[in-house]
Amino acid sequence: MSSTNLDNYNEAENAANREWDGVLTRLWTGYGTSLDAAQLKVYHGALANMSLGVLEHVIDETIRRHRLNTVPILAEIFDIINEYHPDYQAEVYIHTRIHRGAA
Fold first, then answer.
1. How far apart are CA 6 and CA 11, in angstroms?
2. Domains contained in the chain, number
3. Would you say residue 17 lies in a domain?
4. How many Cα neighbours within 13 Å face the side chain of 51?
5. Among 24, 55, 88, 99, which is most buried by a count of CB atoms within 10 Å?
């Protein structure tokens, strides 16, 4: 891969990571809660293998259903994943997105 192509790939990967992180942080901004770095790291680790499209759908649905003025717990998020995307780990998402890498 040439230097220019690698730079373009890295730029695209960074943009995709920022977009993915922006979707995840809706859990805090949606409830007017300050972002907690330790909590975000846990949520990021639990959801890191999820594609952007699935993550966006699940986070939007979680925010729509959650009735308290708190950040939804991971169990609520996984309930929605299991309802709408029960086979998400078995589906081939990694080939349709830029690999996110380690948190």
1. 8
2. 1
3. yes
4. 16
5. 55
